[in-house]
Amino acid sequence: MNDSPGWATPGSSPSDGERPGTDGGAQQPAAPAAPAQPEQPAQPAGDPKWSAEQPPPGQWSSPGTTPEAPQAQPQPTAGWGQQPGTPQAGPGGPQYGYPGGPGQWAQAQAAKPGVIPLRPLGLGEILDGAVATMRTHWRSVLPITLVVATVVQVISVIVQKFMLDDLTLTANPDAGPEEVFDSLGSTLGASAVIQFIQFLGTIVVTAMLTMVFSRAVLGQQSSVSGAWREARPQLLRLIGLTLLLAVGAVLLGAVLILPGALTDTIGLAVLGFVVWLPLLVWLGIKFSLASPALMLEKSSVFKAFARSSKLVKNTWWRIFGISILTMVIAFFISAMIVAPFQIISLLAFSGGIDALEDGSGMSNWGVLIGPAIGLIIAQTIVMPFQSGVTVLLYVDQRIRREGLDLELARAAGLENYGTTGG
User: Sorting pLDDT into bands at 50, 70 and 90, what band is 9?
Assistant: First the structure.
């Protein structure tokens, strides 16, 4: 049995105490004796009307054929798999061996009510499930990411416009100390505003897309209003969870790196950084499933951290590899989309090399708007892909550890799933 309440172990067989015929089980009543069959009359010896070889009772063969020996009947086995050497019914008669072998019986396919089959998933199925959800449920996925990405980029462009103007002022050698400090303060403030807007946008997209993907697994449609209605009660907790992750990363870096920096010990600072970076990656993967656990289980922040740690346990490297691959794919997609917009805007609106050197060309509206359009398109595609992989990783881990496929099948309306071989 697993340690998650409410879930049954898939393919479990009755315990020894429950099986008939064991000492621990209740004594089964004896089967009634079969009624005695009437004795057959003896065949007269040498009678030409009787053949020397008669077929056994209940078995008949065509005239002129030799009766075959009775075939062994396949015996059912407990669980999802079958033992090697157990005969299975096939189109050409009983077949033996492991599933999937040449000329051998094949295991029944798992049900697929939505974008993924209800069984442990492979890498390709996780990536394909994320793309299939974007393609099948694009009426829900694309409006969410498009609206949020557009709002974030519009605010970022406006803030960057004033920020870059201040940076141009600091490049002026005639600027006094007060002007320099004022411009630096405004630059830091503008950067903080941009990061905060992007932070909120990411939270909203993650929350709503988690609901869309959870319904896509069941083959159910989602609407933007429905996703927002389901995600809204957990938004504050999701914000708190994300803030705790960010603050924890900063505090961990401060504890490991600041001692060397404050004492001007470069070796100690470098050692702290070398320890901080892999520790940060390890904790990031360990808690990577906390967000879907928080949203789908309606749990608290700290319970979500505990759930993620439990689901990732003993599979850290697998989740790390899938997460890194997802990030690489997202990076290349974003770069391929944004780069052309950025190059065209620089060539068309920067004002030449001189304007780029003194920084004045970077504050042009055309230079800012071009890459922003590319980022809107890229984020509309990349954000649901990354969110989908995270949600499907969460579902996959729960299927592997807790038999979530049985509960998903019931939620999808599949009757008697898991009780008759899938």
Answer: very low
- How much helix, strand and coil, in percent to the nearest 5, is found in the chain? 60, 0, 40
Give per-residue pLDDT as tens, 216-249.
999 999 999 999 999 999 999 999 999 999 999 9
- Distance between CA atoms of residues 390 and 284, nearest Å: 13
Q: Which residues face 88 on adjacent strands? A: 95
The stretches of 18-137 forming alpha helices (DSSP H) are 123-136
Alpha-carbon gap, residue 310 to 288, rounded angstroms: 11
Residues near 45 by beta carbon (within 8 Å), at least 6 away in sequence: none
Question: CA–CA separation, 401 vs 120, rounded Å?
Answer: 10
How far, in Å, CA of 101 to CA of 18, rounded?
34
As given in the structure block, the two tokens for residue 356 are 């780029």
Of 84-93, 110-119, 237-246, minimum mean pLDDT range: 84-93
Q: List the structure tokens of 233.
A: 């009660």
What are the distances in angstroms from CA 118 to CA 115, 126, 323, 400?
10, 12, 21, 10
b/e sequence 303-323, b meaning 16+ C-beta within 10 Å: ebbebbeebbeebeeebbebb
Taking a C-beta distance cutoff of 8 angstroms, is the pair 95, 353 a contact? no
Question: Where do we find the tokens 């509309």?
Answer: 380
Asked if residue 113 lies in contact with residue 218, where contact means CB atoms within 8 angstroms, the answer is yes
- pLDDT at position 156 is 87
- Count Cα atoms within 13 angstroms, Cβ side, for 42: 3
Q: pTM of the predicted model, to two decimals?
A: 0.70
